[in-house]
Design goal:
By secondary structure, this protein is mainly alpha-helical. The chain has six helices and three strands; from the N terminus they run ααβααββαα. The chain is 60% helix and 11% strand. The N terminus is likely disordered.
């Protein structure tokens, strides 16, 4: 039987599955950087590439495909010559980024704890 976190919450296994899905999305090395770069609005590929200059072209392409697969990024193709492609955050992408900001707040409050614990363990005789 699944352990309940509280009377009104889903089983703990459901929480673990949800967290695993988030980790799959974040598995792309540059996902957070690309999401943040798209926050101000839609951008063409070259503009986005300039804004995330540390990311190589192929890695940016792979990251955009990854985020598009999870419906966090929308890719719109315009029938121009040459073809114009714009990328933007979907509603899901904007909400996902908001959730990441909450995680950032948690890290600011509790972030040093793991390193401090590791330091203490390392000093033990």
């Amino acid at each position: 039987m699944a352990k309940q976190d509280s009377a009104n919450m889903e089983p703990a296994e459901s929480h673990a599955q949800s967290i695993c899905e988030v980790l799959l999305i974040l598995g792309s090395k540059w996902a957070l950087l690309v999401l943040e770069a798209l926050l101000p609005g839609a951008q063409r590929f070259n503009q986005l590439q300039r804004n995330v200059a540390v990311v190589k072209t192929q890695s940016l392409t792979d990251t955009l495909r990854h985020l598009e697969k999870y419906d966090l990024v929308h890719r719109e193709v315009f029938p121009t010559i040459p073809v114009t492609v714009e990328y933007s955050l979907t509603e899901k992408g904007r909400e996902f980024y908001a959730a990441l900001q909450e995680m950032s707040t948690w890290v600011r409050k509790w972030g040093g704890t793991a390193q401090q614990s590791n330091d203490r363990v390392g000093r033990m005789p």
